[in-house]
Structure formats: structure tokens, C-alpha cells
What we know:
By secondary structure, this protein is α/β, with parallel strands linked by helices. It contains 16 helices and 17 strands. The protein folds into 2 domains: 2-207, Spore Coat Polysaccharide Biosynthesis Protein SpsA, Chain A, CATH 3.90.550; 215-411, Spore Coat Polysaccharide Biosynthesis Protein SpsA, Chain A, CATH 3.90.550.10.
Amino acid sequence: xxxxxxxxxxxxxxxxxxxxxxxxxxxxxxxxxxxxxxxxxxxxxxxxxxxxxxxxxxxxxxxxxxxxxxxxxxxxxxxxxxxxxxxxxxxxxxxxxxxxxxxxxxxxxxxxxxxxxxxxxxxxxxxxxxxxxxxxxxxxxxxxxxxxxxxxxxxxxxxxxxxxxxxxxxxxxxxxxxxxxxxxxxxxxxxxxxxxxxxxxxxxxxxxxxxxxxxxxxxxxxxxxxxxxxxxxxxxxxxxxxxxxxxxxxxxxxxxxxxxxxxxxxxxxxxxxxxxxxxxxxxxxxxxxxxxxxxxxxxxxxxxxxxxxxxxxxxxxxxxxxxxxxxxxxxxxxxxxxxxxxxxxxxxxxxxxxxxxxxxxxxxxxxxxxxxxxxxxxxxxxxxxxxxxxxxxxxxxxxxxxxxxxxxxxxxxxxxxxxxxxxxxxxxxxxxxxxxxxxxxxxxxxxxxxxxxxxxxxxxx
Length: 461
């Protein structure tokens, strides 16, 4: 007999998502972890015969991460497809090895224990199918003997309150005998958290509403009057607004702050930024110096460096938090999308995004983000007149992975339109080669200004 436990590696933002409004992404992930550990403890507590073996089928993570988290055991990925496809695959694989009775459970029911699992296997002596009904209309356990048919999982509205009834209807059509176990409550929605209120084995800290870490967006600018207002307004509008208990949506200013670090603009950039209600720092010049100055004034746990002609994607804050919560990730950025037409620009995007993902080498116009503590631990941006983003990546990459979020930033095509795609690409590659050959950054900056006929504080790809 085999008992298969379905769970997910507790990665913030990707598990127990319906509980994120109440617990925050990290709190929901911690609760997922606690429920999984509790389920394994409860189902492993049996001295009754016949005994069963336990297998954990997981989504997210990998075998190494699962073993590191839960200890030695049998771990298998759930694979692709909807929940029905994953359940069918798990049954079919187990039966193919000669196992005659298989039951699959989730981890959402804190009252699920070994006695219920044993009862399920006992019912399979007389029934083809056993189901453990959940209060919300789903099921917490499904068991089969000797064989599985895919039709049992076809046409099921997974995630709805019709799952149990639709499964029973399918069993009847297939002439399968079935038995129902006691109904149990599961933890799936914010209102379900009351079930855990008096259970000492669960951390009460997880039941408190959590707010996301604050993100400080630092925008180095020089004569960006035409772009800065749009960049600021789009950043505010792109914030994911979680719910904070009964108080409704959180003000965006509690999630992000925007700091414009001006390098001596004379076109009204400073006045426009201040009128948009953001903090402005003046009196510094040079992009690296501007971004370091902005970081010093920041109060957020996460720093995100945004060029003044680049627009953030919707939900950027959740993406950044999620990426930085991944095991081994030290920093991140977004894919690049250029706001223009033409085959040349599409090839630039492809090259940039390939370099970012496979070489872990995003540049500054991809909105680099990392935790503030790490930023200062590595000394911030090197005070260089050019290539400061390249140098920052050089400091970060030995420390861990540089992740690339799923949605792209949208950047202005102005430099490619001004100089041409080929010329911009050649200039950038020559500057990179010069950097690796040890040409002093001050000389590279003069070459760059002369070749591009523009300020070195303009963003570059």
C-alpha cells in the first residue's frame, strides 16, 4: 500500500496564494510548510498493520530542496498538467510498480491522521474508490485499488465546490463502487484560518496579517523632463495592492517609495518630480553616484534602480519580492522590451534577454533589484563614470543567482532611433571589450560620449 502526499515547496508568492491577502506571501509560504510537516508527522504515526509506504509528490523546488527541507524520503515531482492529470499520473505510476492500493492526500486538513489513512485502505477491500470529503466541496483524500481510469478525472472543475460531487458522478458512470470517509475542514481561504487559532503546533505568528517588504525605487535622472512624470506615475500604478485584514487596500506609498536622484538637470526634471510627490535628491552627478545617493536616502528593505525612460510592469513589486525569496537568489532584474517597431529592435531584445537569463548579466536599463543590506555589504555601485551596472553584477554573481522576472520593463527606443541599432550595438560591445582589457573607465566614458554623442548618464543596453 502506498500513501502519496501532494504538496508544494514553500516558495513565497507561489503557494497558498488565496491566503496571501491575510498572511502575506512569506506568511502563506510558512503556513504551507507547517501544514506539510504536520501532515507528515500525523500520517507517519502508526503502529497498526498493515502499514503503508509514504511518497511525497511536489510542485516547485526540486528533490534536493525537498530532502533538505523534510529530510530523507521518496520525493517525486508532480509533473505538468492540471490537478487531475497529476493525480492520474501518480496513481498510474504506483500501480505500474505492482502496488495494489494507493491513496493520495493533500496537506490542507490539520485533522487528517494515520487512523483515517488506515480506514481508507481498509475501505478499499470492498470499494473501488474511497473519497475523503472536504467541507468546501472538494476532497482531502482519494484512494483506488489496482487500477485507475483517466475518465475519473475528466471534466472536473478543480478548485471549485463541485469537485467531490463531480467525482462521485464520474464514478457512477464508470460503475465504480465508492465509499466516503468522514468530512474534514481544510485551510484554503482566509476565513479558514480560525481552524488553527487554538492549535499550539502551528505558529500563531502566521495568523497575523503581514505586509510586504517596502521597495525603494531609485531613479537617476539628467534632463528627463519629457519622461520622468510618466515613469513615476506608471511605477505607482503598477504596484500590486494586497489587502490588509479588514482595512482594505494598502496605500501604494506603504509598499514603495520613489526617489529621484538628479544629476543637475536644467529642464524642469526636478520640479516635475517634486510635483509628482516623490523625494528628490540633487547635487550629485554621475549615474553611479546618483544611485548610491538615492540608496542612502532609501528606507526600503529592497532597492530597485530604474532608469528615467523605463516603465515597470504591472505587479513588479510582487515579482521582485518573489524572486528575492527564492533559494540562492541574491538579485534580479526584468526582461527588456523596447517601445518601438522594427526587426532590429526585436533582435536587440532577444540578445539582451538571452544574455540576462543565460549569463546572469542584466544591465541597468532592466531595473536591477536587490536587498538593501546586500547592496551595502558589497559596497554599492562602484564610483565609475561608466559600466557601473556591469561592475555591480561582477560583485553579485559570485554570491548567488541573479534572477530574471517573468514580465518585461518597457524602455524608450530613443537611443536606437537616434544612432541606429547597429551603431548602438557596436558601441556597447566595444566598450565592454575595452572594460575587460583593462581600459580605465574614465577613458571608456570619453570614448562612449564621443561615439554616441550623448550623456553617459543616459541608460544603455
